[in-house]
Amino acid sequence: MYGFSLQLQMPFDLVITNVIESLKKEGFGVLSDIDVKATLKEKINVEHRPYRILGACNPSLALRAIEADADIGLLLPCNVVVREEKDSSISVVFMDPEAVLQIVDSPEIQELAKEVKGLLLRVASSLSR
């Protein structure tokens, strides 16, 4: 598995707001926000349920990662997907940095991945309260 998730029963836009606020509390900013639903409609005229990809970054941890491995930017930021399911529930899916960054042969990067995962797990936990 390369991610972990939770299901919520609340409006999509409220989940987006809560995810962004919870990320901020753990030191993450959202560098990118890709609205897949809007992009599919605009580019290929396809209707799709709400689906957003948030590119989350903790600047201090990203700097440590870049200093440890200059090419690590290829694997950043940590993506968080928020999507509406067929049953109208909302899935919030977090990239698992430990799983993704195990391809990097560096104990320092592995330790950072563990630290980032811990923070993202705290975000997930705060959302399910």
TrEMBL record:
Superkingdom, natural source: Bacteria
Domain DUF302: 34-97
UniProt xrefs under Gene3D superfamilies: TT1751-like domain
Protein name as it appears in the record: DUF302 domain-containing protein
